[in-house]
Design a protein that fits this description.
Number of helices: 13
CATH architecture of the largest domain: 3-Layer(aba) Sandwich
Bound molecules: zinc ion
CATH topology of the largest domain: Rossmann fold
Strand content: 15-25%
Number of domains: 2
Largest sheet: 11 strands, mixed
Distance between the termini: 52 Å
Structural class: alpha/beta
CATH superfamily of the largest domain: ANL, N-terminal domain
Shape: globular
Length: 462
Amino acid sequence: MNPFFNPAFLFRIGKGYMFDISRLHRLSDNKLRSLQNKQLRKMIKRAFTVPMYREIYKKEGIEKQDIQTISDLEKLPIITKEDFAQHKPNELIPSNKTINDFVKVSTSGTTGKSLSIYVDMYEIVMGLFGYLRTINDYNISWRKDKISIIGDFAPHTAETGYVKRGLLPNTMFGNVFKTIQWLDTNSKPEEVMADLEKFRPQFIGGYTGMLGHLAVLKTQGYGKHVQPKLIASTGALLDPNLKKFIEETFETKVFEVYGATETGPIAYQCANAGVYHIMSDLLHLEFIDEIGKPVPSKNGGHLLVTKLFGGGTPILRYNAINDIVAPLYEPHQCNVSGDLIFKIYGRDKIRLFRKDGKIVLASSLSSIFSRLLYELKTSKIREMKVIQKNLDEIEIQVVIDEDLRDIGPSINEIFQVFEKGFKEKFGNTVSVSCHEVKKVNRDEPRIISNVDPSTLKITGYV
Ligand SMILES: [Zn+2]
């Protein structure tokens, strides 16, 4: 049965609609902890109906009643991508359900093999609410104001699963969300801008790269009536200079929302400070070092995620979000409850290495690429790939947009910006060779290193 025709389901959604969106404002820290504990017990109970978890927990000798509160989480084994890959789809969902009761969402393959998890409609809607409530803190009403969301709606993506296969086929949501415009980040920026111009949203949520391209277009006179009161950036770390460029161009404020396929939204930037508020009513995060010990406040660690809601594939102490993130344990003066993130460093697997043993993460490289947008004001690079051949040689492949080839700065100027930027990060002796290609291989990561890190003494992150 379609869950939307089920009165109990509609009631649950109604409750979410009215209460959950502001939950992080209403709850004291104590109430939030007890909500977390209650939700965790529910998720553990459900995990024991899911063959994969039952098998893993049985092997470890774990019983349902061992896990009563968040502090018991450390008793559970860490769940990896390989655990998911070794099990069939029907072993990832409660055994009293079938695959058809869920929507399948797949993680992208950029950091390894893609994997699929199964979510129910309640999770999809709660994930969307989690996203929308971030804008409440910035005085935008998702019910009154017009909202444009520029998602990744390529056929294989999680967002296509969540939105196109989950949300939109449903007539009920057509009405509830009629103030939302869905746009595709795989479209050309000019097309996205034309749609925004027609809709004139008060809020735009999109990927960092697309937002940068839109800002370049705006400086060229496109989208005269695109004047959002607020912009949210997701997917990549926002370089401060790029942020300033987007804010100045659109005369608006930009903040960051952090999320992942497997979990939906995870955290968002506080309206009053640079820190991020974790959606602690929806998930719990742990931050661990290489040997699995919790890192101190403000130190980068690997994320372990425990999702506290949803009837599909449970996510419990899951380690494959693959980001380096630093927690903040010091108090933060704010009316939002829940845990805090101090800094998000970005993907841990997409990394280059420096002679001195420092790791250069993708987020550090993005500050080079974003200069094209805010310094050269060009979006003529459509795709690119960085290959670190060895510690002394870096190759950069770029795909040029043919429509823009003769507009704005020359390709040579662009290459000079790359060369200068990479030499700043890797030292003057590094050779940087840039050249054009017709296309880049989309199945491989965009940033590849052939350096074997075991030959280096790793000394930390740049
Ligand atoms: Zn705050």
